Amino acid sequence: MAKKLNVSRQAISNWENGRNLPDVEMLIEISKTFHISLDELLLKGEDMNDITRKIIHDGSENQRAKRNLYSIMIGTFLLLMGDVYLYKGELC
User: Model's pTM, two decimal places?
Assistant: First the structure.
């Protein structure tokens, strides 16, 4: 499997043991290489397996991190605008 996907045996072992997950591009490559659908690969005929849960969890964590970053950026912008407004008021 490692040779077919051009990854190390350690990468495969890490996926199997849940230490790391293949990225989306690799999941697509696995699906193509072994002629199985992504649904079959991720769900294995069940509602959800561990890999599917981890991918969903990682995706939601990434979205939460992006929202936090945007909130910080907007807050910083508003603070800077407030400082500019106050500074301009002191000059007049």
Answer: 0.48
